[in-house]
């Protein structure tokens, strides 16, 4: 009974600290403890949190881990593994919903980078987005066209064109990620960009940029002068 009361007191202190201060001052194991409180009601989550960090190396490593691997850690189990794996997807869904609802104007490369980094956060596989824009560079729809492997994703130009036309895009921005790598474009990235610029141009849809995200870093084809600048498009609008 005394041990149970001790655990309960620790839980309440962490919860109250979160309510008053947020997570910024928390250590990684404390963040995991707070998360695990929700699904492991009667367990001491402190040693479980430390085991998770020891196994996967970091908080992000835990949240990006496969549910089967999470469940194999002593004390975790299936339900907690599912809950942990759900968090990155819920975060991406939140950002997707927020930016779609608000229809932001993305008329500068740095704004596009700020838009895409949260959408791609925690993705262990390559994904490819086509961001459909109106004549004022406001977001019409962010279309997730492809989910691939850790090293590559496949995108069909025809599907990109169909998506842009369906959402009545005047222009598009392409974006994909390099999980665990650098944002520098590969030869394949450059060839795909060139092909999509030509294909979309044939139906009078401009490609304003292609953004490659790697963690918190990003590469902009427009900023590198590989694609026309936003100012050129905005001047024509």
From TrEMBL:
Keyword tags: Hydrolase, Metal-binding, Metalloprotease, Protease, Zinc
Similarity comment: Belongs to the UPF0758 family.
Record keyword DNA repair present: no
InterPro entries per UniProt: MPN, RadC_JAB, RuvA_2-like, UPF0758
A Pfam family it matches: RadC
Protein name in UniProt: DNA repair protein RadC
Keyword Transmembrane: no
Gene3D superfamilies per UniProt: 5' to 3' exonuclease, C-terminal subdomain (1.10.150.20), Cytidine Deaminase, domain 2 (3.40.140.10)
Sample GO molecular function, one term: metallopeptidase activity
Highest taxon listed in the record's lineage: Bacteria
GO biological process terms on file: proteolysis
Residue ranges of domain MPN in the record: 105-227
């Amino acid at each position: 009974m005394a041990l149970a009361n001790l655990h309960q007191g620790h839980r309440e202190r962490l919860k109250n600290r979160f309510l008053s201060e947020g997570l910024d001052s928390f250590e990684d194991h404390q963040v995991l403890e707070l998360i695990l409180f929700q699904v492991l009601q009667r367990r001491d989550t402190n040693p479980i949190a430390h085991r998770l960090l020891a196994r996967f190396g970091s908080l992000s490593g835990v949240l990006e881990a496969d549910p089967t691997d999470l469940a194999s850690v002593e004390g975790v189990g299936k339900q907690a593994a599912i809950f942990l794996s759900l968090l990155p997807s819920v975060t991406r869904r939140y950002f997707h919903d927020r930016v779609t609802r608000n229809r932001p104007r993305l008329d500068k490369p740095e704004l596009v980078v700020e838009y895409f980094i949260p959408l791609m956060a925690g993705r262990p596989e390559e994904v490819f987005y086509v961001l459909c824009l109106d004549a004022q560079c406001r977001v019409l729809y962010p279309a997730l066209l492809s989910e691939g492997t850790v090293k590559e994703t496949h995108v069909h130009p025809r599907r990109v064109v169909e998506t842009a036309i369906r959402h009545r895009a005047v222009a598009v921005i392409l974006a994909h990620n390099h999980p665990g790598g650098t944002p520098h474009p590969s030869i394949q990235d450059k060839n795909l960009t060139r092909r999509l610029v030509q294909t979309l141009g044939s139906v009078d849809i401009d490609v304003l940029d292609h953004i490659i995200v790697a963690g918190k870093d990003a590469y902009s084809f427009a900023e590198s002068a590989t694609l026309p600048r936003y100012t050129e498009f905005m001047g024509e609008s």
